[in-house]
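Morning F.,

Quick status update on the modeling queue. The single chain you submitted on Monday has been processed. Sequence for confirmation:
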Amino acid sequence: MPVEGFKVDVEKAVGHVFESEPNSHINVSHYIIDNGFTPLPTYPLVLLLKGDDYNVNLFKERAQGKGSLPGMPYYDPNKIVHGEQSLEIINPFPVDGGKFSAKKTCTGVYDKGSGMVIETTVDLYDEHEKVKYCSMVSKSFVRGYGGWNGPKGPKAVAYPPPKRNPDAMEVFATAPNQALIYRLSGDYNPLHADTALAPTIGFPRPILHGLCTYGACGHAIIKALADNDSSRFKSIEARFASPVFPGETIEIYMWKVDSQDPKTDGVIFVAKVKERDVVVVNNGYATLYKKSTESKL
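Structure tokens below.
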């Protein structure tokens, strides 16, 4: 049932630019011995909730960003689940860390009937906003806040898996405490830890962060199809289809496909939970820069 009296002023909300937020990244190069080490290209996604503080934060405050969204009435932040995520790499993320500036813009609010989708775009820069590292588009689904006759949103591009065996498959065996470990990245949404809260939102127990599975997919693609060379990773997008429960085994299937860009190869991917045979990530598509063929003579 729609929440009585809930209605978004879309004209006020869409296009709103939030105040820039500082983010920090620890210099991990002090703790490694492999000179070829680089952070996973998906790493910047976790900085948005971590911010510039290493302490535990309030998810409601971090998810909202600095300041309220104009035209958006109050909604229960515990009803938020991650719907879709994309990431485009502009410049490699620095291994030696530093301070960064995140520019966040509301780029869409959609009425999906059973809930509401809030789309935000975050561009990550160095602290002086001279170097752009990446652009991230997130779609959050707020359960129960639909039915206010708002725009339905554009039709998504479909990436169905080819009707052949996958070119690669990787397995990610999550630990029973996987969500408790992953929340240290800065995503302290109680849905991933509070055993009393989860049933009130429609889950039998706390679920794993979508970005944990998403990061595993990114890592699998780099490992299996990019020779473990993260510099070849250009972009990734996917939809979170169903929740993963900590302790389950995630199977990631990948198919190499042609890309519209002659400089890149495309990868369609799907993630499934082995124990339940349930697709948890679908409509996945990534692009990898083609392997260099320069002569070494």
